[in-house]
Every structure is written in C-alpha cells, then in structure tokens.
Amino acid sequence: MTLPNMLQIAPLLSACRAGTLTPTDIVREVAARVDAYAAKDPAVWISRVPMERLLARAAELERLPAADLPLYGIPFAVKDNIDVAGLPTTAACPAFAYEPRESAEVIKRLEAAGAIVIGKTNLDQFATGLVGMRSPYGQPHCVFNADYVSGGSSSGSAVAVAAGLVSFSLGTDTAGSGRVPAAFNNIVGLKPSRGVLSTYGLVPACESLDCISVFAGSTTDAWEVERVAGAADARAPFSRTFSPRSLPLTTFRFGVLSAEDRFFDGNEANAVLYAQAIKRLEQLGGTPVELDFAPLKETAALLYSGPFVVERLAAIKDFYHSHRKDMDPTVGTIIDGAANYTATDVFDGIYRQHALQQIAQCMWDDFDVMLLPTAPRIVTKQEVIEQPIAANSLLGAYTNFVNLLDMAACAVPAGFAPDGLPFGVTFIAPAFTDEDLAALAGRFHEALGEAIGAARTEKPDISAKLEISSSGRVLLAVVGAHLKGFPLHWQLEKENAVLRETTRTAPYYRLFALPDATPPKPGLVREAGFTGAGLEVEVYELDAAGFGRFVASVPQPMSIGRITLADGKEVCGFLCSEAVARSGTDITATGGWRSYMQKK
C-alpha cells in the first residue's frame, strides 16, 4: 500500500486493521521520507531512533492485535525537551544534554496505545521563543518558503507533521509554541488545558504554565492523541484531573477583535483572511461578539515583560549559573532579565494575574468561545536576525495570555494569502472544554475546504461530527419544553422525530428554571465536580435535514452541544448559557423538568 502524503491516523489504522499495511511498512516509509526531507531542511530533527530499533518496535506491535490499540503503528515525533528513553534530551542546548532514565509519562501512554516514536525534534532553546531560530542544531523553515521562519518554539515538531514525516507530534506551549508553528505550516495545533497532559519528564520553561501540546493534520487526530495521552499524575506538580465542560457546537456566540484591536503589522491580506474566518464561523451557526482585548493584552505582557521571566530562570537555575556562556545569546539575554525583579515583584505579578483571571472569567458571560488570529503575520528569518526580540514579541500578540488565564486553545488553518503563505486562527475557551473546542475548530477547518500540510493534497479527516445513530440519523436529547406533552414538542413532531429512549443524563449536570421564559423552560449546564442523580431526558432521532432545520430555530441563550447520558453515551442536546441559567432557580434536586412542573 502506498502511504498518503499526510499520514492521518484513521486511514493508517484502517489499513493496518485490514491487513494491507503493517507497522514495518510504516516505519520503512517514514524513515525514507525523513532522509529525503533532510535535503530540503536538515534542521528538523535533533536525534532519531535507529532503524534497527524502529523495526524491532514494529515487530513487537505485529505480535499484538491491531484492533486493541487506538494508535497501532502510528508514527510520531517528540520535541526535544520531553524525555524519551534511549535518546538524549538536549532542550536544544548541547551543554545541558542528558540521558533520561525513563520516558515521560505522555510518551509511555502513547507507546502503550501502539504509537511509534521516530525521533526528537528541534526547538528554540529551553522552549524560549516563538520563531524557531534559537537553536545550535539549525533553524527549521516554513514548509512553504525557506526564507520564512517555521515558528517556535516547537519548530521541528510542526514541520515534521506538515511535511508528512509523521502522523502527529508533541510540542510544548507556554506562550504559543504549540499554536504559532501550526499556523505557519498549515496544520492543527491543540493546546490542552493546563495539567491535563502530565509534564513529568518535561524540561520546564515556566512550570506553572507549561502544557504539552499536539500537532496533527486534523483536530480529530489531535484530540485522539490528547485523549490517549491524558491522565492525572501526582509526579507532575500542576497535574489536574480532566473534568470535561461542554461547549455549544451549532448555535453559539464567539468573541472577536474589534476593528481597532485588529493588529496585523501592516499585512492587509491577513486582515482580510481574519474577516473571512469570522464570516465562515457565522455560517456555521455562530454570532460574533466584540471582546475587550485590553485585559488579555495586559496579561500577555506579564509573561516576557514582567516578573514571570523569573520562572524561566528557576527552571534551569543551576545550569544557568554554571553554563551561561553555553546558552543561545538571545535566550540567555531573556533569562538575564530575571535579575531585574524582586520576590515582591513576582508576588505582585501573581496577584495581578489572578485579578486578570477574574476579569477574563466574566468574558465568558458574553460569548462561548474566542476566535483570534494565531499571529499577526509570519516573519522572515532575516527579520529575526536583525530584531530577534521584537520579531518574537510580534508573534505572541494573540497567544501569550492563554495559559496565564487558564484557557484551552486549538489553532487551525484559515487560508492562504496571495503570496502563498498560510494564515491561521485560534479557537480559545475555558479550561476543560478541550474536546468540544477541538470539535468546533474541526467544523471550521472542514468548512474552509483547504487541503493540509505542505503537499496540500488531502483534506483534514474530520470524523468528530454531531453524534449519529447507527441508521445515520442524528440523536437529540431534550430536557424541557420539548418533552412529550410540553408546549414546544410540536417542533419535534413537525420534523418526524422518533422517540428512542427516556433516560437520564450523567451525574454532573444541573438544571435551572429560567426566569421570565415564555413558555416556561429550563436551562441545563454541566458542572465539573458535581455529582447528582442525573436528570430526565428524552432522546429523539431525526434525519440530518430535519435536525438542521430544528437547530436553526433554537434561540439564545439556548444552544445545541454534546450531552453525556447515564450510560456514558454522548448525544446532541440542549445546553444553556451558564450565566443565564444560574440567574434562575436551581431545580436539579427535582430530577427533571417534568417532575418540577408536576410539583408546581
């Protein structure tokens, strides 16, 4: 079997499970591609797994049933600040290099799922930078034009995916390092909520902010990797248990930059592409809402222009004090800046961070998700050489605040400018919305209609669509005025909806009687950490066209998102703006809208 240019997970898995492709076939093809691409860009990799070890790993997998492993035979790359047993960890600093005794927790989990490590990729030294130009191992370039940067700090990881060398790669993201390179190379960059992927085995940049991130050709692939790799880990000080939160996926509000905040550093083509992205998301059911960018911009300044630079020194303090001369000059200069701050400054910065978090939290009352440019524009390597700090700062204009404010983010392609260079946008939402965020960003990516990566021959394999029954029809859970016998049930009857079951939600939902609603109706919200008895729902089946018409009639503050049922199955269902719902009466204890109305 000839492998596709972009090694998306689903077709590789299908071929392996059908017996038309083996892990040995995959590693041989991948090794050949890596060798060939080195002639175009020799700076992608820092170290590679020897061929004999790759073949041994493939043979090991071939003794196992392919159907049992979700990433069976899938090749991936690892940013070289994440430990992989048998390969040195350098963090792009030869004097810092060491041989890890064990792999990082995320590597162990991915390998247990059947994935195959191909090697370690280049990065801005100590993950300090967004340009991909701060490494003694060379400077990877944009897959579309060698004069332009690849983006960083996860430079090699992004190029490895965009060039079709691996199916996915791991990067890290403290200030945008898992998103900016995705935008510059026409791929997806999923930045999980902080602490969802264990950082045990990661060389920290800013340990309280660091995230291990995922590059892939599609949001479906990126989310699958996060799902497999994620787990709470007591060895990682900022690890957290993933407590999923829902987002509306069909009718929703999204925050956008006002005209005066749309900064593209003179690149009018990118300004047009951002405006087009807003229109595209409107066509998918979104309502744009202008956001106040000022608190986000202030937050971003804390990371490099404030006391948080001290945390970068804390991460490597012993090495810094004994090997400052061995560091990249720009990276060293940035970390030198830690000397300008006192302990009092650091705490003042933390207090301001938390105050800004409170301000940002209120933004979610106005919209469900943000849609921002990933970066104002791509820069040339020459610009970075001439102005290394200024060029880097430009690239973080729309990314630096995200981890400081405890948000999840997913960067996706958003088209090409007339000069042939790519543009990207980022979907940003509250922590623990990772799955729905990836699904919504995936809908946008699919609607874009562009092929992915450098080759641009294949479109993203977006299989994370609305939940569909075995008959190919949509399953929809209703919880209030659409229940049988209630005032809006006629809307389901009009679309010939068929009742499939009466059941309950999973235990982590609350129900509120909405104030001043005509007819009376409730609002359902998901609450992480809450454990109740579940709420009564009726699950109906509609054809796709009927479902589309039904969704179009759903008014704000209601929306259609994913609802988890008591048996763990996910279906479409009604959700409500949390702020609006909580302005009403909490009726969760009644067990559902029908019971509540009977008791009134």
UniProtKB/TrEMBL annotation:
Name this protein carries in UniProt: Allophanate hydrolase
Organism: Acetobacter aceti
Keywords: Hydrolase
Domain of life: Bacteria
InterPro entries referenced in this protein's UniProt entry, alphabetically: AH_C, Allophanate_hydrolase, Amidase, Amidase_dom, AS_sf
An MF annotation (GO) of this entry: hydrolase activity
Gene3D superfamilies on file: 1.20.58.1700, Amidase signature (AS) domain, Gamma-glutamyl cyclotransferase-like
Keyword Ubl conjugation: no
